[in-house]
TrEMBL record:
Identification of the protein by name: 2-oxoglutaramate amidase
EC number from the UniProt entry: 3.5.1.111
SUPFAM superfamilies on file: Carbon-nitrogen hydrolase
Keywords attached to this entry: Hydrolase
UniProt organism field: Lactobacillus helveticus (Lactobacillus suntoryeus)
EC main group: hydrolase
InterPro entries (UniProt xref): C-N_Hydrolase (IPR003010), C-N_Hydrolase_sf (IPR036526)
CDD domains associated with the record: nitrilase_5 (cd07583)
Keyword Hydrolase annotated: yes
Domain of life: Bacteria
PANTHER family, A to Z: DEAMINATED GLUTATHIONE AMIDASE (PTHR23088:SF27), NITRILASE-RELATED (PTHR23088)
Acyltransferase found in the keyword field: no
Family: Belongs to the carbon-nitrogen hydrolase superfamily. NIT1/NIT2 family.
Amino acid sequence: MQMKIKVALAQFNIQFADPDKNQQRVAELTSIAAKAGADVIVFPEMWNIGYALNQLDRLADDGGRTTTKLFYRLARQYQISIVGGSVAVKEGGHFYNRTLIVDPLGQVVGKYDKVHLFRLMNEHRYLTAGNQENYFRLAGVPSASFICYDLRFPEWIRTVARHGSAVLYFPAEWPAVRIPQWTTMLKARAIENQAFVVAVNRVGDDPDNHYNGHSLAIDPLGNVIADAGENDGITYAELDLTQLATVRGAIPVFVDRRPDLYK
């Protein structure tokens, strides 16, 4: 396992219902991150169209093919791993909020459809929930990914993290009004799972919400390594994975679990 990885938190203003402009921005940010020596770049949730859910039939990526081709090209061109935030995908007569994880060869090494749909933003009316875990190796590191509202379900995070994930990724569109809870819960997920957390939010506005970023990288003790603030652009974090042995050795929570009692 690689002992240190440099992660690029690509926090940007998603253009509502405009996939072409958003794809251009993703390509631009990937180029910048690669030139800065990042091993992994992470994007926000629903970056292709924002929350234009009432336009999914027209705008959703059919089978995820456009996004897959874009990430294939960018990963190979820049030799960078991509945690693809998430995009609106149309497949089999359903719509999904889907993450794609791509390695530097352009191969999809992870795919995840959001499991917990957020009723406050009407996801349950338009989207189909996923039902599969997503754990993978990226930059040689055991990892897992979730999407936004999943953060509020620690039992789901633990279910996936039990496989030994060193890094937990959380792309999101988390409105500014609830950012204090975002910060607190991300720290808690890092501490309780003894893992690094990398969470990328957006900035800007859509017709219903204001977003103020604060993408975060957090170490296994809950310390903030990087906070993107409200800036549009990339913030970098170096994850020193040698911390994991010390933290997990001192307090072996995964060994001491009692899943027979958890109902």
